[in-house]
# Entry
Amino acid sequence: HRAHRNFFMVSGATMATILMLGILHARRLYEDRKLKVMKEKGIEPEFSPDAKAAFLKLLPLRSISRFWGLFTGVEIPTWLRPIVYRAWARAFHSDLEEAALPLDGYKSLQEFFGRTLKDGSRPIDPDPHCLVSPVDGTVLKFGELRESAAMIDQVKGFSYSATSLLGASPFLLEDGCKDVTDMEYHEARSKDSGKRSWWRISFASPKVRLPKTACPIRGVFYCVIYLKPGDYHRVHSPVDWHVFLRRHFAGHLFPVNERATQTIRNLHIENERVVLEGQWDEGFMSMAIIGATNVGSIKLFIEPELMTNRPKRKLLQTEPPEERRYEPRGMKLKKGDEVAVFNMG
Amino acid sequence: STVVLVFQAPVAGSTEKDSASSEFKFSIRSGDRIRVGEAIGR
# Structure
């Protein structure tokens, strides 16, 4: 009789769990559909923090991410590899034809995820005056930073400051348009840059009329690109430039999907990221490579020894980023060069 | 994962001679799917 009763209890609990998961999934599908309809009507989703975002902050996301890295790093038997990677590609819409190696050549899911592509898969736009996309992905936001606060739109109704994203000590340019050699750059950086940031100088420069034929007036632009799990996850150089400085912010590892951008405040500033800063022909250039829960590690090819997604330390929100200057002349990158790769975990 | 570019580029009202051609313009729209090597602005 007792065994019989236990059986009913277990199957009841199982049924309740399945039912609850089903309800949650149905609600998610409904909300996604609502979002899609809004988009089709041209209504942009607004920032609306919810309980789920608050709950995420309680989860040990870094530990979850590192475990995910361990799990995906496990070697898969050769005969099983094509099956697993095809299933991944089907689930996340990856293009397997472009993979440089045969599918059974990738020892683990992690290796497959950071795969290179066949030669010629990503031709670089031949226009010498164009700036190219550093990654495969979806354009979320782009535009010109107009106010002195230099705010980047995370989603309608919420934005974050570009200086918080890149780092608190921006580069100091006295006259805003002089071509700076790397030595002057390093000298400028060594000064106490607390005086005036170049953001303001750069915005101010239209007002400061230098001889017009002397140099172009420059604005500050930004572009935010989101990579889906199935996208090619290597980061390339958008232009020919010199990277003078690298900053590593050991932040949180929230997910960065569309839902998270609408519900988690300062998402790109809170998350672990690597920022490269330097100069191209037209002035300042920077690239922030931002991790997430499932892709918590960023490996820089120009600095292979940099380790990210380290075990949990006491993270002070105001903790300054770890900085490294590329002495003496910076790292020269050509448009299209491989710069980094996102790794799982 | 996400990548954010922040950069300087010429704006309208640049040098007298060829202001129109030297002004940076994006060649993308929000929501566009983009790939490595494709132009996002000129």
Summary: Confidence is low (pLDDT under 50) at residues 172-183, 189-213 of chain A.
